[in-house]
Design brief:
The chain is of the alpha+beta class and 213 residues long. Helix 1 packs parallel to helix 6 (166-189), helix 2 crosses helix 5 (137-145) and helix 4 (115-121) crosses helix 7 (197-210). It has an 8-stranded mixed β-sheet, with helices on both faces. The protein is globular and about 50 Å long. The protein has helices at residues 3-18, 76-85, 98-105, 115-121, 137-145, 166-189, 197-210; strands at 28-32, 39-41, 57-59, 65-67, 91-95, 127-128, 151-154, 158-163. The chain binds zinc ion. Zinc ion binds at residues 94, 96, 157-158. Zinc ion is lined by residues 94, 96, 157-158.
């Protein structure tokens, strides 16, 4: 079932190590099939080169395994909580990508000091509070704090990104790390120069409505 989505989610997982967003088997991508509402997610603890469509796990929104022999990612409860609360979201990514997670470790959101941050995120990349791993606490905090941003830094933990598709969520995960790296380097050089709020909004509008083919 959902063969196309499983293949897509496998291919998108490979973007995580390619973009230096993950170490070993950490990190995960999921995609929701809009027709059935079922979610395809990474199996727990499987290394990236070993992922294949038949190893992916299909779960319903309550976490019941619908197809798959392996145990789903330990972050499944977080993904499912977000899907249940956000009908606009059909893709979710979680990583501990190093530069973004460094901001999470010191509890700092990433301010919109680059036009690329305004374009992609429409403002600062927000920070969510500390939440323990294992139940719905992380999902609750993501939904509470992410606002209109496609990405959030979770304090002392890492990054969650959301999108209208799994591909959009992976793009946001790449872009949040890229932004975090540049802002990190900028902080070493001097004081960050804020972009006025009105310009942040203008850049975001132009990018989301006019950029691309
Ligand atoms: Zn994590």
């Amino acid at each position: 079932m959902l063969e196309k989505l499983k293949e897509e989610v496998v291919q998108l997982h490979l973007e995580l190590p390619k973009n230096n967003l993950v170490a070993w088997s950490s990190g995960n991508v999921s995609g929701r099939d809009p027709q059935t509402g079922l979610v395809v997610i990474k199996p727990s603890g499987v290394l990236y080169p070993d992922l294949a469509p038949d190893k992916m796990v299909v779960v319903d929104l309550s976490g019941k395994i619908v197809e798959g022999a392996l145990k789903p990612s330990s972050d499944t409860a977080t993904h499912l909580y977000i899907y249940r609360q956000r009908a606009d979201v059909n893709g979710i990514v979680h990583t501990h990508s190093p530069f973004a997670t460094a901001f999470a470790a010191v509890g700092k959101p990433i301010p919109p000091v680059l036009t690329a941050i305004c374009d992609e995120f429409g403002g600062e990349i927000p920070l969510g509070g500390f939440a323990p791993i294992g139940d719905e606490a992380i999902g609750e905090e993501v939904v509470r704090s992410i606002g209109k941003s496609p990405a959030i830094l979770m304090q002392n933990h890492g990054v969650f990104t959301i999108g209208s598709s799994p591909r959009a969520a992976v793009k946001a995960a790449v872009m949040v790390e890229d932004a975090a790296r540049t802002v990190y380097y900028a902080i070493q050089l001097g004081d960050l120069i804020p972009i006025p709020q009105e310009m942040v909004a203008r850049l975001h509008k132009r990018y989301t409505q006019q950029y691309g083919q």
